[in-house]
Amino acid sequence: RSSLSGSSLVSSNATFVRPSYFYINGFENIPHIKYYYVFLCLVYAVTVLANSFIMAVIYLARNLHTAKYVVVFNLAVTDLCGSTALIPKLIETFLFEKQYISYEACLSSMFFVYVFMTMQSLSLLTLAYDRFVAIVFPLRYHVIVTKTAMLVILAVLWLFTLALISFTVSLITHLSFCGSLVIKSFFCDHGPTYALSCNNNSLNNIMAWVCFLVVLCIPIILIVLTYVCIAIALIRIATGAERVKAMRTCTSHLILVAIFYLPMVGNNIAAVVSYIHPNARIINNSLTQTMPAMLNPIIYSLRTEEVVDSVRKLYNIYSLRTEESHFNVAVIDEFPSTYSEENWGYTTTL
């Protein structure tokens, strides 16, 4: 497999040599690895259900039509789409042993995976901004953080992300592949892909570092700074009860931040300071990119009082309507002569 080369599998123009396909290597010599892919299937199913649930709750509950939940809704969308861009293709590749992927499909997969991963990170940063304004400037919160302002911020972040990832992926098309075509990862990962090129890929390396800074380093630094400011503001609050109440509004976000960033930071530190077996690296990276999308909506459903209250109210409304519907049907069945099909209502003969 590692001997696959581009010698007889390429299309070329005047400048670049492009392969017809790549081969995604994945795991090597792990017995019963298919059980792991079945586990990822379950993760994906829960991810779809949980994120669809949180989006439906935000859409149906009018009290959640606020600036904060615009961002939470956006995070749920990126979680759902990010998992959809990665897990089904991963299952097809390894569980059904379709490890050859066309050049165009590889770049397309790379684009969507990185777009949604970047937006997940930037959505968490936007939520940190929301909490910062809410606690540090509570009296001006509803003036500064409006739905319109959040929609503008998210639109700018989406445009920035699309431009950044489009440029990064498009640089792959300026590379020639004349050696191995084996991508040593579990999807068309940017780094392992451009590393296979046989011409100058220095610009690709620069953009890899830029993406690393945008997705990981800068958001972490800004989130830490916002919580330093939040901590200072909480210290100035007079009573401990008020501090606990204010901090409780941040716990859900802090858990999401820890779940998303800590594994990524750990993987990168481990890769720098020691050797990681390729199989261990793939397991770490695959879990890092799939588990947060599943856990985020579950945490928000369980840890946020507003969401819990909204779910309870929606359930009560649904139960009440169901009972009314059953009652109406029962009355019609018991007193059919009092029901007029002409006016679709009950007569007054009772």
TrEMBL record:
Source organism per UniProt: Salmo trutta
User: Per its record, what are the GO molecular function terms?
Assistant: G protein-coupled receptor activity; odorant binding; olfactory receptor activity
GO cellular component assignments: plasma membrane
Q: Where in the cell is it found?
A: Cell membrane
What is its membrane topology?
Answer: Multi-pass membrane protein
User: Which residues are in the G-protein coupled receptors family 1 profile domain?
Assistant: 50-300
Top-level taxon = Eukaryota
Does the record carry Glycoprotein as a key word? yes
Pfam families documented for this protein: 7tm_4
Membrane-crossing residue ranges in chain numbering: 35-59, 71-91, 111-129, 150-172, 206-234, 254-276
What the entry lists under InterPro entries is as follows:
GPCR1_Superfamily_Member, GPCR_Rhodpsn, GPCR_Rhodpsn_7TM, Olfact_rcpt
Q: Which UniProt keywords apply?
A: Cell membrane, Disulfide bond, G-protein coupled receptor, Glycoprotein, Membrane, Olfaction, Receptor, Sensory transduction, Transducer, Transmembrane, Transmembrane helix
Q: Which PANTHER family does the protein's record reference?
A: G_PROTEIN_RECEP_F1_2 DOMAIN-CONTAINING PROTEIN (PTHR26451), ODORANT RECEPTOR-RELATED (PTHR26451:SF966)
* Stated name of the protein: Odorant receptor, family 42, subfamily A, member 2
Major location, coarse class? membrane
